[in-house]
Sequence to fold (199 residues):
Amino acid sequence: MFKVPEIHRLKTGMFGSDESYGNNGVFIMELLSHGKPPKRVHCLVSDGEGWEHVSTSIVYGRSRSRTPTWDDMCMIKELFWDQEDCVVQFHPPKSQYVNMHPNVLHLWRKQGVKFETPPSILVGLKTKVMKCKICGEEFDPTHLALVALHRHDENIDPSKFIGIKGRKMIKCPHCGSVDTTAWGPDSDKCLDCGLTWSV
Fold:
């Protein structure tokens, strides 16, 4: 749900507004993050034409600004929308660029429409532990060899996977690496420390 922090609304001057403006107006606030000095943030907010919109810049000194960071934009998103709302930053075609003010980034959400998002697995894994549905054993899903083993398919030869011989993980006796990505496919050479040994 789109909302505005009324306590931070600019109420005087050319850009001043009051609560009757709803989710429209200028909001100026200081944000704290990671024990650093407060950041003075200027937000121009609107909900017209079916779009919820917050433009943001970080201001310091009397007239200087900088482009917000990812963390800055995450804090702004949490301030104006609920945690489970999907809000986006667009990278439009070059022919549609509008850049009225430098160092400003924009957050958008189309009203009444649920954004389609890619499956989270395309970004990465949410957890480092998975539980096999067949045997119940927990394993690290980032190790492709272990994923292959837990398919429990007799047609899959585990020795074809990097970092595994038969059904045993190879551990480097020199550096102790157990990361499956650290092994050569056809030899017992550790790609972390470079040493070779026989098993």
